[in-house]
Amino acid sequence: MVHHYQNGEDLYREQMEEYGGRTELVRDGLSSGRLDLRISGLRPSDDGQYVCTVTNGASYGEATVDVEVAAPFFHNARPWMVGVGVLLVLSVVFLGLGAYLWRCTCG
User: Of 5, 47, 1, 2, which Cα lies nearest the Cα of 23?
Assistant: First the structure.
């Protein structure tokens, strides 16, 4: 279970461990029939289909949501790695430009 809300309280003890501390039920729209559940710190493992069930007395409602989590392009990039990459690219550009200019002035 991703999140359990019953009788005005969140029941976190029934929550799956991987969602611990990452869900928030936004209660603003409950009285008007709107339900928002936020999952923070999305992970690739959160990708998939979620089913939301709501019961209120004899009334029952169900909604299905497909969530697609896109992983970042450089998920392991560190700032120093980016800096080294930029320096390498700039070095190649300046060496190429220098060789071109030297060839033009000498030839």
Answer: 2
Asked whether residue 22 carries a pLDDT value surpassing 90, the answer given is yes
Comparing C-alpha atoms, which of 43, 38, 13 is closest to residue 24? 38
Taking residue 3's Cβ as centre, other Cβ atoms within 10 Å add up to: 20
Task: Inform me whether the pLDDT recorded for 23 exceeds 90.
Answer: yes
| Residue pair 24/37 in contact by the 8 Å Cβ criterion | yes
pLDDT higher than threshold 70 for residue 19: yes
Distances (CA, A) of 42 to 23, 88, 92: 10, 33, 38
Q: Which residue has the tokens 């060496």?
A: 95
Closest CA to 13 of 4, 26, 24: 4
Give tens-digit pLDDT for 67-95.
998 866 666 777 888 888 889 999 888 88
Q: Give 35-74 as a DSSP string.
A: -EEEE-S--GGG-EEEEEEEEETTEEEEEEEEE-PPPPTT
